[in-house]
Design brief:
Layout lengths: L6 E5 L5 H5 L1 H14 L4 E5 L5 H10 L5 E5 L5 H6 L2 E4 L8 H8 L3 E5 L2 H6 L7 E3 L4 H13 L1 H19 L1 H18 L2
Parallel strand pairs: 1-2, 1-4, 2-3, 4-5, 5-6
């Protein structure tokens, strides 16, 4: 992937860019992070034209530490390389990318939108920052880059959380319970 370490990963459709996925917030935060961690790389994977976001990174002075990979067939390899996963979205539903990152044990930093709060409990299985707050995002990511023990702890808790709540057996069990309860209520 890259000779630079560490790696911070963001996965999202680039065409949803400014409003929904908040690439602008991520890049603004990154311009601050790379001042402290000049050998770090922000990897952004997702379909769409990266040109506008490359231009933003250029204006912010951090383009040399940002890689736009485009659509990636096997995102799992990216999660395995990443030290931190970021999802600073302003708005979206339950993110598959977030669940995938957590299932791979990657420490996650997310915005405080409802869908993210459904998955991440701040300080337990990830970190939560205010939506649109690039300085808070930069502080959270920098803190995790500086603390491997904390990253590993959050990653372990994330795996446990995803297995307990989102693993297919757990989902089927809850669905069966709901059907059974609904059937009993109609009798």
């Amino acid at each position: 992937l890259t000779e630079r370490k560490p790696i911070v990963l963001m996965v999202g459709n680039l065409t949803q860019g400014h409003y929904y996925k908040a690439f602008d917030v991520m890049l603004e935060a990154w311009s601050q992070i790379v001042q402290t961690y000049p050998h770090a790389t922000l990897v952004i994977a997702g379909a769409g034209d990266p040109t506008p976001w490359r231009n933003v990174a250029e204006k912010l002075g951090c383009s040399s530490s940002v890689q736009f990979l485009g659509r990636v067939a096997n995102v799992g390899a990216l999660y395995d390389e990443a030290q931190v996963f970021c999802l600073p979205s302003r708005e979206e539903g339950l993110s598959n990318a977030l669940l995938e990152a957590q299932s791979r044990g990657v420490a996650c930093v997310v915005s405080d939108i409802r869908a993210n709060l459904f998955v991440v409990q701040d300080g337990e299985n990830g970190l939560v920052v205010p939506v649109g707050d690039a300085p808070a995002l930069a502080t959270a990511v920098s803190g995790l880059l500086a603390d491997a023990t904390r990253r590993e702890q959050l990653g372990r808790m994330a795996v446990q959380h995803v297995e307990a709540k989102y693993e297919i057996g757990a989902v089927v069990s809850r669905l069966e319970e709901a059907y059974t309860a609904a059937r009993c209520d109609t009798r």
